[in-house]
Design brief:
There is one protein chain. The protein has about 100 residues and is an alpha/beta fold. It is built from four helices and four strands. It has helices at about 15-25, 35-45, 60-70, 90, and strands at about 5-10, 30-35, 50-55, 80. α1 (about 15-25) links the parallel β1 and β2.
C-alpha cells in the first residue's frame, strides 16, 4: 500500500469526523470504524496507522489492539490508543493488564 491511510476506530461520530476532516486537509485518507468488529475487519486492510478509542461501546479498544497483534493477517505496526475521558492514568491501569 503506497498511499498513507489512517484507521480511526471510535464510537463517537464527532471525533471521527473531526479527525477525518483534518487528515484529508493534509492529504491522508481516513477509514472510519465505529465498533470493535468493524475495527478488526478494517485492520486487515493494513492501514499505515490505527487510532483506537480505549472505551468503545461494545468492547475495549485495548483488546482490539491485543487481538490485532496476534492476527498474522494484520501487519499494521503503528497503533495509538486514545481516551477522551477525564480519567487519571492510575484508574485505567487495571484495564490494561
Amino acid at each position: 500500500m503506497n498511499e498513507q491511510t489512517v484507521l480511526l476506530v471510535d464510537d463517537d461520530p464527532q471525533i471521527t469526523t473531526i479527525l477525518s476532516d483534518r487528515l484529508k486537509e493534509v492529504g491522508i485518507q481516513a477509514t472510519i470504524a465505529n465498533t470493535y468488529d468493524e475495527g478488526l475487519a478494517a485492520l486487515k486492510s493494513n492501514p499505515t496507522l490505527a487510532v483506537v478509542d480505549l472505551m468503545l461501546a461494545d468492547k475495549l479498544g485495548f483488546d482490539l489492539i491485543k487481538e490485532a497483534r496476534t492476527n498474522n493477517a494484520i501487519t499494521t505496526n503503528f497503533m495509538i490508543l486514545t481516551n477522551s475521558l477525564n480519567t487519571p492514568r492510575g484508574e485505567l491501569s487495571p484495564m490494561l493488564k
